[in-house]
Design brief:
Number of strands of chain A: 19
Oligomer: heterodimer
Radius of gyration of chain B: 19 Å
CATH architecture of the domain at 2-233 in chain A: 3-Layer(aba) Sandwich
CATH topology of the domain at 2-233 in chain A: Rossmann fold
Number of strands of chain B: 11
Shape of chain A: globular
Helix content of chain A: 25-40%
Distance between the termini of chain B: 16 Å
Number of helices of chain B: 5
Structural class of chain B: alpha+beta
Largest sheet of chain A: 6 strands, mixed
Structural class of chain A: alpha/beta
């Protein structure tokens, strides 16, 4: 520890934002290593500012540190400059709480929210001196991983000892119990992994073999040891009200991406947008009560000194007691505390609350019609209309907003040029609404940001079988939009096509993709989600040299009977349901909100016989 | 009422930037639940300001800030704020600023620093440096580098031998006139040597009263400024 700190004295003055690497923030947990049986490092494969904004990381830090027998610390990916300095000085990757090198921990738990962090996982292991392949780890920490992108764990399978799929609040403590029991018995690494496979949600890739056909498709999967279940069921916390919640959130010195108190109103979503992975894999909907949320907000504000509370969830406007919650929060907090409500939907329901929340009009209002025509919105099951958009925009303008962000996607199944032109039409509509306002309401020039992302079909969604646009198709549509969106006050943002392509490969790829990830990392790829780091040429070389076919693992359409690499993960939502939703999509048929009536997606099976969704 | 605090920024928080520290202090004020004065306007914020920014990487036992507070004395405010600070930050002193006192930022004219001495530095080298009429040093800023004369800003220099090593104690002009940073001073003592990892500590800030330098905390003294 002291040798690392000594080396840092010489290194930190040379890097950007050294506070990323120093720790010592308010409310971090420190324990005496002699008092704990298990040392756990929660690892986030991106910058400190991104990782500290991750709710899952904060929840698990708290859950693990509540245990007297466990000390959970944090580690983030060092930026390029820091990596260079650390490697030059021979400083291993260390945790921020105690400056302990990672290889001294019992477990390292990666939080994987997006696929573009995969090369960073390898880089962090390497910087810690930990063998990259699980099979080469004779001792040292178990490398585990969880988070939304692990619903297809296969591209990283050979590097990870154990995946924890789904909600971690209960699974991780159970896993630690198993670990302690195995340690006391002197069990081997494999014996621990077999025992851990009995914890619902846990998956040890080394205990599962995959057989491939000559065409590269999966023929079958089979567990390699007795008692290891073939199917891995996603872990689900039944009651969020009863689930632990960080009462003393860490307060970073650095300004992080979401620098405020965060409340999680509910987990899950009932809307059923067909492109949305979160909307499928976090089912069923589980709400926290107004009492619990108010108490959590008051406590967190007192413990942190923040002056903003963000009411998050996948679709916060859908919280069943939103007016009551806003009323209670307003009454129980200091008048200078502001409330913000991200992820507003653009239907009438959400508009009622615009006046009460998110007084930060400077930040602008975000509206997400997602597709340019009603036909295509029906295909993706985004059930909002052009009229909804117009009235939302009108309401916002009348309440003083003069900055609007519009979110759209391209590359959606059945899309035609008509749908692309629809994006421009809807943008023009919003500008038109502003121009119709009486002059006193139009004191400033309207600013509209149109952000157009490219569909990356995700596992466990109805679009998991769909073809992804190739790079030339993405470029053509982006060029079209650049022309169409030449309007005063309009700014057009798009996603780099090659990055979307890579995300697609890592999202739907099978185990063989790990070879390309390894090679790309060896060639120097890291921080692939950052444009200043992403290196398309190196990735192409990695695919060529490893013989991993990017088209096969990425963009191609899958047959209805193909075994998909992630089929063995049971998220609760059944494949047959996803398939029927895909077919309805292709026919342009919408599916209602399942709050109005169960649609039989299958997730209630995870809750046990007696349970139905709320 | 304007309350001033003298505080310490310890070695464990020396890499926190000035803006980060401002935010940390604002949150500490809110956690302390002090009756602070809020600014008017669309985005109200607590009325407080620092005397002078500290470079990233430097530590200090002589930081100052002032905060608008109503209905609570300086001593009580110091106790409550002190209890709510995170590790590495400590309140050392407090006082009420008298009516009409200048802002801390405007009052600062000099600062005391302790910095690692260049290896093998002798006291007579410092004395020789002080006899120069001009001390040109290359200063690198946002718009490239230029030569500045730091001699007018060096008020005194001395060498201290301690069990922890040799340190230069410097009193330098600070604020709007002849401001000299300890890093430039080091460059004058050892041209060409990299100062990025230099350990420096600010000890005190001064204002001028009756043509004499007085520690900034005395802006809160009974006899006033």
């Amino acid at each position: 520890m002291t040798s690392i700190m000594g080396a840092l004295d010489a290194i930190l003055p040379r890097v950007r934002k050294p506070a990323r690497y120093t720790g010592g923030e308010l409310n971090i947990v420190r324990k005496d290593p002699a008092d704990v049986a298990v040392r756990f490092a929660i690892a986030f494969p991106d910058l400190y500012e991104v990782g500290m904004s991750n709710l899952g990381l904060r929840i698990l830090y708290d859950v693990l540190n509540r245990r007297p027998d466990t000390w959970c610390e944090r580690v983030f990916a060092p930026w390029i400059d820091m990596e260079g300095e650390m490697r030059r000085a021979g400083v291993p990757l260390y945790t921020l709480e105690s400056y302990t090198p990672l290889d001294r921990f019992d477990m390292i738990g990666f939080s994987l929210g997006y696929e573009l962090g995969y090369t960073n996982v390898l880089n962090m292991l390497d910087m810690a001196g930990i063998p990259l392949f699980a099979e080469n780890r004779a001792g040292g920490p178990f490398v585990i991983a969880g988070g939304s992108s692990t619903v297809n764990p296969e591209p990283l399978a050979p590097f990870i000892d154990l995946f924890v799929i789904g909600d971690g609040e209960e699974a991780l403590p159970e896993l630690i119990d198993v670990y302690r029991a195995c340690k006391e018995l002197g069990a081997s690494r494999e014996e621990f992994l077999i025992a851990a496979s009995g914890v619902e949600g846990c998956y040890a890739p080394s205990l599962h073999a995959v057989d491939y056909g000559e065409d590269g498709r999966i023929r079958a999967r089979r567990p390699l040891r007795d008692g290891v279940p073939a199917t891995v069921r996603r872990r689900v916390v039944r009651s969020l009200d009863a689930a632990p919640w960080p009462e003393k959130p860490i307060v970073p010195y650095l300004e992080i991406v979401h620098d405020r108190v965060t409340l999680e109103l509910f987990r899950g979503c009932t809307r059923g947008c067909r492109f949305c992975q979160a909307g499928m894999i976090y089912r069923p909907i589980r709400e926290r009560s107004v009492d619990t949320l108010t108490e959590q907000a008051v406590r967190a504000l007192t413990q942190t000194g923040y002056d903003e509370v963000s009411l998050t969830s996948l679709s916060s406007g859908d919280y069943s007691r939103l007016p009551e919650l806003i009323g209670r929060l307003t009454a129980s907090t200091h008048p200078h505390v502001s409330l913000s409500l991200p992820s507003l939907r653009i239907d009438a329901y959400a508009r009622e609350y615009m006046r009460d929340v998110s007084t930060d009009r400077k930040a602008g209002l975000t509206l997400a019609p997602e597709a340019g025509t009603q036909r295509l919105r029906n295909v993706i099951n985004k059930n909002v209309t052009a009229e909804d958009l117009r009235s939302s925009a009108r309401e916002a303008f009348e309440n003083g907003w003069d900055r609007v962000k519009l979110y759209f996607m391209i590359g959606l199944p059945t899309e035609t040029d008509e749908d692309i032109r629809g994006i421009a039409d809807m943008t023009r509509d919003v500008i038109g609404v502003y121009r119709e306002l009486p002059a006193p309401l139009r004191r400033r020039r309207l600013s509209v940001t149109v952000s157009v992302s490219t569909l990356v079909p995700k596992p466990h969604t109805p679009f998991q079988w769909a073809a992804q646009d190739d790079v030339p198709a993405m470029h053509r549509k982006q060029r079209m939009l650049r022309e169409l969106l030449r309007m005063g006050g309009v700014k057009f943002n798009w996603h780099e096509a090659a990055v979307s392509r890579l995300e697609g490969i890592m999202s739907r790829g099978g185990r063989p993709v790990h070879r390309a990830i390894l090679r790309a990392w060896e060639l120097g790829c890291r921080f692939d989600g950052w444009m200043e780091c992403f290196d398309e040429a190196k990735w192409n070389r990695a695919f060529e040299e490893t013989g991993v076919d990017p088209e096969f693992h990425g963009a191609r359409e899958r047959d209805s009977d193909e075994v998909l690499p992630w089929d063995f993960i049971d998220t609760g939502v059944k494949r047959a349901y996803l398939r029927s939703e895909y077919e309805r999509a292709l026919r342009g048929e919408t599916t209602g909100d399942c709050r109005a009536g169960c649609l039989g997606c299958g997730v209630s099976s995870l809750l046990g016989e007696a349970h139905a969704c709320e | 009422m304007r309350v001033m605090f003298r505080f310490e920024k310890g070695p464990q928080v020396r890499f926190i930037s000035h803006l980060d520290l401002l935010r940390a202090m604002q949150r500490a004020l809110l956690r302390a639940g002090l009756p602070i004065v809020w600014s008017q306007g669309f985005h109200p914020h607590p009325e407080f300001s620092f005397a002078m920014a500290l470079p990233v990487g430097a530590e200090s036992t002589g930081e100052y800030m002032e905060v608008g507070i109503t209905g609570c004395g300086a001593r009580e405010a110091a106790v409550r704020l002190g209890a709510s600070l995170g590790p590495g930050l400590r309140i050392l002193d407090s006082g009420e600023l008298l009516e009409g006192a200048p802002s801390l930022m405007a009052a600062v004219t000099a600062s005391d620093w302790t910095l690692q001495a260049p290896e093998g530095l002798r006291a007579d080298t410092l004395e020789a440096l002080m006899r120069h009429r001009e001390i040109p040093v290359e200063k690198t800023g946002k718009d490239g580098s230029r030569i500045v004369d730091i001699r007018p800003g060096i008020l005194s220099l001395s060498l201290a031998d301690t069990p922890a090593g040799q340190f230069v104690q410097a009193r330098l002009s600070a604020g709007s006139r002849d401001n000299v940073s300890p890093y430039l001073l080091y460059k004058a003592m050892r041209p060409g040597e990299d100062t990025a990892a230099l350990r420096v500590c600010r000890r005190e800030l001064y204002f001028v009263k009756n043509r004499e330098l007085r520690p900034l905390i005395e802006l809160a003294c009974k006899e006033g400024w």
